Amino acid sequence: MKASSDQPSIPFSRLGRGIQPPVIVDLMARALANPELLSLAAGFTDNAVLPRELVGRFAAELTNSGLEDEPLQYGQNQGRARLRELTCERIATHPGERLAAFDPAQLFITNGSQQALYLAIQAICDPGDIVLVEEPSYFVCLEMLKGLGLRPIGIPCDDAGAILPGALDCLLRTLDENGERERVKAIYLVSYFCNPSSRSLELDEKVAVAEALLANGYAIPVIEDAAYRELYFEAPHPVPSIMSLDAFASFPKLYLGTYTKSFATGLKVGYGYCSHAAWLGKILGIKGHQDFGTAHFNQSIIERVLDEGLYADHLATIQQHYAHKAVVMHTGLLAGGLLDAGWRWEQPKGGLIFWLRGPDGADLRMDSAFCQRCIEHGVLYVPGDLCFSSGKPWHCARLATGALPERRLREAAERFAEVARRL
Length: 423
Fold this sequence. Notes:
There is one protein chain. By secondary structure, the protein is of the alpha/beta class. It is 38% helix and 12% strand. The strands form three sheets. A seven-stranded mixed sheet has the order 2-8-7-6-5-3-4, sandwiched between helices. A three-stranded antiparallel sheet has the order 9-12-11, with no helix packed on it.
C-alpha cells in the first residue's frame, strides 16, 4: 500500500528517529534488481558453491514424520543444545584455542552474527555512549551504532589497518581527560580477514590492546567479530581468539561467529559466545522479546552437517574457490594498470574483500563523480569513507569478490580499472 502524503505524523522514539535504511540494503537491492550492474559491493557468497546437495538431503530427512526432536516446531531461545556443543568444538579447532575455554551454556544461536552484535550492543549501551572501533571497520556495524544513537570512535591505525598501541593509549587518556570515561562501553575488533581491510590482527596487536585498556582502567566489554575466520585460503590465521588469551582474562568478552559466510547465507544462522553471565542473560532476554529463538529448522540442518562430519569438506571446497577468485581479482586490477595509476592494495589471505587505496586527494564517496562513473560503466563498489567512524579519508574503496562468477568478476575488475585509470 502506498503511503499517503496526508497521513498524520507519528512522534517517533529517539531510536526510531535515528534509524535510517542501511547502505548495505540499498547496495544489495541494486545488485539483485539489475543483472547488468556488476556488483563488487554487497558481500554475497557465490551461488556456485552453495551446499545444495547437503541442504536438500538433510531437509528431506528432517521433514520425515516420527522424529523425536521435531525440527518444524519451535526451539529454545538460546538455540539447539547439540548445535551449541558442536559449535564450541568447532571454535576450539582453531590454532591456539583451548576446548576448556568454551562451554555450550555460554553460547547462543542467532539470525546471523549481525543479530548477536545488535543484541549485545543494545544490552550495554545508551544513546550517546561510545564504542571504540578499528579504522577502517565493518561499515554495517558503524551504521548500526549510529542508528542506535551511539558514537563510534576510531582506534588509531596505520595505512594498512594495523592498530597503533601508543596512539590507542593517547586516545584513552584523552577520553578520560574530557570526562568521557563512563561513556566508553565497548571495543569492537574484526580480528580475522577483516571486512574491509582483509588483514588479521597479530598477537602483539591483540595483547597491546588489552594492555592499553587495563593500563588506563578501561575494563570494558571486548567484542571480537570472527565472521570470516574460516574463509582462509591456505592456512588459518595462527592467533587465538580473545577467549583463549590470558591478556583478556579480566574483560567481559563476546566472540561472534557465523555459518552464513562459511555454509549458506540464506539459512541466516550465526552465534555468539559470551564470557559474562549477566551480559549473556540480558542478550537472551532481548532476543526472547524479539523472536524467542532462531529458526529451529535452519539450525537443525547445520547441526546435521556438523554431526555427520561433512562441514570440513565443504569448507575446504569453498576456501579453494574463494582463493582462486581472489587471484582473479588481483590479476584483473594489475592488468587494468591500477598500480601505475597510483592505487595500492594488499592481496588478501582469506575472506571475500579487497581494500583499495586510491591516489591521495581522490574522492570515491557515494555521491562523487567517480562513483557515478563506475555505475555508468556498470560496476558498483562500497565507498571506503563508510568504513571510517569519522567519514574520512575519501580515497578508499571496498571490493567484494564473493558473488560474481569468474567471467563476470574479471569484467567487473576491468570496468572498475577503466574508471580508476582516468581518475
